[in-house]
Write a structure and sequence with these properties.
Length: 231
């Protein structure tokens, strides 16, 4: 005679995100962090694999600008809460509006800079098979709005911290994934921020190392507006 079937307990998206929000500081501390600037270095294909100065300007709840000071001029990416642009001196169109998966990616990066409302402002689904990153178990959720092409977030099962983002962009040659790995979390105004980030795509890789993050730091308003054409 068979006994009762064992109960399978599945971790919900709310449980995963609640653990993440608590791991990075908790709701009270997240509410206090309303803006920050950051400085560090960037190394990638557009810098000939050399380290160059890098800056972040961020404003809650979802505005974000990054600036790479390349050898050929500044490369600027901005999301103002609704729209996004990339501006670079080596582009044929100096200020290019972001669309599709590129815009969704910029939006996700902005929200992850101030993730207090990540549960309310996105629809997530869980239930993925367990996987590991660097021999550590992770839990996976996916933005349900875009189906199989939605952004996936990977959280360390033990610490609850976000360790990877995978997003997809439709191109003429198919759907291209981009991986962003997060590590070296440090507390800034009571909120843990990843100081090390590695971005990997089909034929490239870039590394961001933050060295200084200043909360509630004043900066010019134009930093979160449509980028100026670069020189």
């Amino acid at each position: 005679m068979c006994g009762p079937s064992p109960t399978v307990t599945r971790t919900t998206t709310d449980q995963i995100l609640d653990k993440y929000l608590q791991a990075i500081g908790g709701a009270p501390q997240l509410a206090k962090l309303t803006s920050f600037t950051a400085k560090g270095t960037y190394e990638g294909y557009e810098t000939f694999s050399m380290k160059v100065p890098f800056e972040i300007y961020a404003n809650a709840p979802n505005q974000l600008t990054t600036v790479i000071h390349t050898q050929n001029g500044d490369s600027v990416n901005t999301f103002d809460g609704t729209r996004g642009w990339t501006a670079a001196a080596d582009k044929l169109m100096r200020v290019l509006p972001l669309t599709g998966g590129d815009l969704e990616g910029a939006k996700m990066d902005a929200f992850l800079s101030f993730p207090a409302r990540i549960k309310q402002d996105f629809q997530w689904r869980a239930g993925f098979p367990s996987v590991s990153i660097d021999d550590r178990s992770v839990q996976v959720i996916q933005n349900a709005v875009r189906g199989n092409a939605g952004t996936k977030l990977y959280f360390d099962s033990e610490s609850g911290l976000l360790v990877r983002q995978v997003r997809y962009v439709d191109t003429a040659v198919g759907v291209i994934p981009t991986h962003i790995d997060y590590s070296d979390y440090r507390a800034v105004a009571g909120v843990k921020i990843p100081f090390h980030r590695v971005v990997t795509w089909t034929d490239g890789r870039s590394t961001i190392e933050l060295t200084n993050v200043q909360p509630k730091h004043r900066y010019p308003a134009h930093r979160l507006a449509t980028p100026r054409p670069p020189t």
